[in-house]
Amino acid sequence: MQNVNRGRLFNASCIALAVTAMTFAIRAGILSQLGTDFGLSDTQLGWVNSMAFWGFPLATIFGGLLYNVLGARRLMWLAFISHLVGLVMTIYAGGFWGLLISTFLIGFANGTVEAACNPMIADMYYDNQTTMLNRFHVWFPGGIVIGSLVSQFMTGMDMGWQLQIAVMVIPTLIYGALIFGQEFPESENIETSTSTNLQNLLTPLFLFMALCMTLTATTELGTQQWVERILGKAGASPMLVLALVTGLMAVGRYFAGPIVHRLNPVGVLFISSIIATLGIFLMSMATGGMVYVAAILFAIGVMYFWPTMIGFVGEYLPKTGPLGMSLIGGAGMFATGIWQPVIGGWLDSARETAIASGATADAADLVAGQATLSNIAIFPAILIILFGILFMNRKKLEERRVAQAH
Predict the structure, then answer these.
(1) CA atoms within 13 A on the CB side of 327
(2) How many beta carbons lie within 10 A of that of residue 171, not counting itself?
(3) What is the DSSP letter of 236?
(4) By the 8 A CB rule, do 251 and 260 touch?
(5) What are the 10-residue block averages of pLDDT along the chain, 406 residues in total?
(6) Can you tell me whether residue 147 is helix, strand or coil?
(7) Measured in whole angstroms, how far is the alpha carbon of residue 321 from the centre of its chain?
(8) Backbone phi, then psi, for 58, in 5-degree steps?
(9) 56-86 burial by CB neighbour count: b if 16+ within 10 A, else e?
(10) What angle in degrees, to the nearest 10, is found between the helix axes of 204-217 and 378-392?
(11) In 255-302, alpha helices (H)
């Protein structure tokens, strides 16, 4: 890797991930505007959201299967082009179907970023994978902080949703410039046999972790993507809640190294599931200032989920290679995509029930948001059991990791 500028490629990866995160935050911030401008229900908005989550796993399957052939360079350029085209198409969308297609393209770009960058970073920083992956994934919550504050400011200034989407073109062009002309690593430290990767996907441990990833991702992203609709009438600013949550997540991930080394990935996941359950449960009852307190607990619970799951696969299932790291993320996004219309349906149904019982529109929105959070709390509650099983078998897992390292 003598001619590989690791720092520049890592920075480009971080900016690309920040763009990915900004698409989530700004989309969450403009949902009400989209619903008003195009006359869409929450269920229809759920389908628009789901396109981003379904485009993502398609890209991770594609990128994971072809990483050994295409390499990180071509995948990064594919992400750049898809981001640029998807953002421009969103700005000029004329209705429901235009939003579906453009959002799918953005989701495909987001997944391609993960498919390219996770294995590339694992390859460049082989001796410190989980810590560096956590530092890379600082920029998912970091990008959400940026996106949510941009959306909050621009909405407050009565700027249209099209301008909010256009803001994301700037960092997209920056990461494109950073990767231009760069030499990329040649997969020296990761398993590059696609057949070996495929064989090791069928192990019970990988399938178990893929199941867990569907729940960790939905816990984190299912809540964040609907924050404006869920907390809109709870007496707290939804976008400030999102900025608070993701700001704490960014800080936590940056300093993840000592925590991961002390507790090991299995311990981190088990404790996180307990705290996440408590955080969402409290948010389902909180109003006013207490929403921010519950949100802090939620942030602590979910901050390590995504990068630690990917780091777990890299360390404990190394023979799954770039395909395993891509598909574990794809499983999370695919499940989150499936649950988006369901979450929208929960909101619609609870709101209709509250209005039918005589509640005002604002009160019905509050009840709907709280009922939906109660439903979402079931996901991390299940994870307490699953990660508890993993935690009880941590010594065997560590023996397995050491054996595979040799």
Answers:
(1) 23
(2) 17
(3) S
(4) no
(5) 83 96 86 85 84 87 86 94 96 90 94 92 82 87 87 86 94 96 82 81 93 95 81 84 87 83 88 96 92 92 92 88 87 87 91 93 91 95 97 86 70
(6) helix
(7) 21
(8) -60, -40
(9) bbbbbbbbbbbbbebbbbbbbbbbbebbbeb
(10) 150
(11) 256-283, 290-302
Give the C-alpha separation, 305 to 256, whole Å. 11
**If 0-12 CB within 10 Å is exposed, 13-18 middle and 19+ buried, where does residue 113 land?**
buried
Tokens of 339: 């649950």
Alpha carbon separation from 16 to 11, 139, 157 (Å, rounded): 9, 9, 27
DSSP state of 318: G
C-alpha 249/C-alpha 251 separation (Å) is 6
Secondary structure letter of residue 359 according to DSSP? -
The C-alpha atoms of residue 177 and residue 16 are separated, in whole angstroms, by 11
| Greatest distance between any 2 Cα atoms in the chain | 70
Phi, psi of 157 (to 5 degrees): -90, 10
- Tens of pLDDT, residue by residue over 234-274, are 888 887 888 888 889 989 988 887 887 788 889 999 999 99
How far, in Å, CA of 325 to CA of 336, rounded? 17
For residues 11, 59, 309, 291, the Cα torsion angle rounded to the nearest 10 degrees is 80
Q: Write down the H helix ranges in 92-193.
A: 96-124, 129-136, 139-156, 161-167, 169-179
Residue among 252, 237, 18 nearest 142 (CA): 18
Torsion on CA atoms 282, 286, 288, 292, rounded to nearest 10: 10
Tokens of 243: 């900025």
Distance between CA atoms of residues 328 and 338, nearest Å: 16
Residue position matching structure tokens 């005589």: 358
At the second CATH level, the architecture of 6-182+194-405 is Up-down Bundle (1.20)
